[in-house]
Amino acid sequence: MAEHDHEHGHQDYQKSSLSLWGAVSLGTGVMIGAGIFALTGQVAQLAREWFVLAFVCGGIIAGFSAYSYVKLAKAYPSAGGIAMFLSKAYGKGSVTAIFALLMYFSMVINESLVARTFASYTSQLISFEAQWLIPLLAVGLLLFAFFINILSNQFIQTFSFFMAFVKTLGLVILAAGGLWASGIQFESISAIPEEATGGGILAGIALSILAYKGFTTITNSGGEIVEPKRNVGRAIIISLIICALIYVLVTLAVGSSLSIDEIVKAKDYALAEAARPVYGETGLWVTVAFAIVATVSGVIASAFAVSRMLAMLTNMKLVPHSHFGMPGSIQKHTLVYTIVMAMILAAFFDLSRIASLGAIFYIVMDIAIHWGVLRHLRQKVNANIYILVSAITLDVIVLVAFIWVKWTSDPLVIWASLIGMALIAAGEILFLRKKR
User: Fold this and answer.
1) Domain regions of the chain by residue span
2) Does the model's pTM come out above 0.70?
């Protein structure tokens, strides 16, 4: 593809246009949108009676992972976030491009996952069923996210903050009501799992990590946050704490209302089903409304961040770019590419496979970030070697377990992951050789 003129590549980046709480809103927007609504049932399917513990362990692993990102953001705040971090560790070459694209496609997969979740919940309010309804609603949400993202940062920040406040308050109220109505009885949660295997629990933890990985999107707005060296790290920590507390509260409420089999059966809309025995049809409508708010804000925040990372890779001349006759800046073009790819995935692919593919891509990229800090940047960013080694070890354990479980139950996911990574690597190597 022909390379586009990069002269105006950064014109959409507005320095100091995002506040600390605006960044927190974007981070929680991605996490809560994808995490608790999209993944509760899928984690329960793997971890069974330990699905709440899986979310807790996923939060702990995310905490170890966040350490590297906080250190890097403090040293190298940038609108490109992870792309910039990788380039500092590995240089502006194929290694940086390959791992950054793994993160990019993981986030695109995440957007399609959240869009499908939005469609699953919204369809609960519609009286008729049709196979085309879910893909149509998912594509419609992604189109709406595109139009929001071409507006100003100030509008996106205000919109995200309002949506984050509404969905957080709503989830807390729903979860507290569910726990109170059930008498704090957790029939589907057990300290001694009867059905879950060790591999299933670890695989559930691996999938639950997707519920927290949205904190990385904050780093992709580093060049636009007020006092980035101070506030990017703070925004990451605050977002993780808020989401971990909400995840535990909500999963406990779901576990008190439904059996494991009921949660798994309704895995695409588990929270809506959990509301039925507690609040009746009114509760179903309220839960669906909050799910719509959460998923809409999640897609908007994800598209905001990931399009900026791809624009950074384009400006670093690590990926091919063509404007296809479109006007405007590179960041606007990368936003279009991101939304179109998410639409294709949301329209044609199964939800659980989408989540599995995203988990593998993300954890591989996460290991590369920690290794880059450990091997090349530890002294420059003043990072603790023991925390870095712990983060790598935890990632490797859950990744191996997840791959093993999927290989025995759905090997197509593993083959798709391997083929996807091979195509990304081959494409990057050929592109960079041709460019030289």
Assistant:
1) 20-435
2) yes
